[in-house]
Here is the input.
Amino acid sequence: MTSPDRFWSDDVRMRGFARRTPVAVVLDWLRSHVAWRDVEQVSAAQAAGRVLADSITSGIDVPGFVRAMMDGFAVQAADTLGATAYNELPLAVIGQSLPGRPADVAVGPGQAVRIMTGAALPAGADAVLPVEHVRVEPSRIVALGETSPGKHVACRGEDIAAGTVVLEPGRRLRPQDVGVLVSLGVASVPVVRRPRVRIVVAGNELLPAGSRPNGVLIVDSNGPMLAAFAERDGADVCRAGIVGDEPEAICDAMCDDADVILVSGGSSVGQEDHAPRLLARDGELIFHGIAMRPSSPAGIGTLGGRLVFLLPGNPVSCLCAYDFFAGRAVRLLGGRAWDWPYRRISGRLRRKLASMVGRVDYARVKVTDAGVEPLAISGASVLSSTTRADGFVVVPEDSEGYVEGADVDVFLYDLP
Here is the structure.
């Protein structure tokens, strides 16, 4: 019969953490091992929010013709020279030019063509005389002001010239970028494929979202929270529901065909914390135990070419570990920025914020007119502390914290 000591000798569980890896080491590893890989084509009209994988060069001039920039009359500017309310100069109206329906006549000396904004400037004309500078009469206009060559006219290629690089790779496309792409006649664009993220929530004590807590059973909050974070960071998320604390069920879930596996719960060294042992057995458990608070039981590894993040079950620890590590990987895989997508402000602490040298602390804070009020560093299971907080302050590992009155950087939870 195998002794209990022999049973636990090769198991990461129930032994505590012999050491915890510094946050900077973990971040350096992620930077060197994670980068976007796959490219796909999407419709230009549906590309907003996607990350451009290659540069876009215009194959045409925009505009592709000389066009009016104001409503008025296309004229030869020399015919209006000296025109004022006291020196009226008559011009014969010989036609009109509308958007999409250009005039079929050429403007000669002493002539004008009625023109609308965006319409093609007729041959012979070199300027537009605004409608407010004329008096309209039957079959003619009277110029009451003058214009100059090129006035109120957009030249061919004035906005974008053919051959111009319009958008660079790595750009997250905005609605106005989509407008430019469509105006160039671009039908589809190469974008970085969204990373596929599988969320594995482990725990026999968990009920699905939408349930009511019942006795010793609690509702899974980490799954919906992680899904929202991953979608914010540009992922295609697979929400697989809750997996019981059964080793093979967890193993099967981690082997899903995804780029990133987020395992919530079962990441520490307790008897029911199976995920680290399974990852070490079937893949590579690169980090387990990180010098930070909260989230110290977090782990990172690889399994079959996919990244696996072991996130603590306590909600705030889960949030913190996602934000520090998994979120960065998801963004990098999708071609997005490594940095947090949070607005940063400076503020003055209203009271001391203590920490311990050798670990990074993630402190939730509230921002008021009076300054920055620390709410908590500990209390990893108190998710409501993050809703009461306006943001968080990071205390670096070489610091014992900040004294009352110190100026600190606050990362705000509000949407970017």
In short: The first helix runs from residue 4 to 9. The domain at 67-154 is CATH 2.170.190.11 (Molybdopterin biosynthesis moeA protein; domain 3).
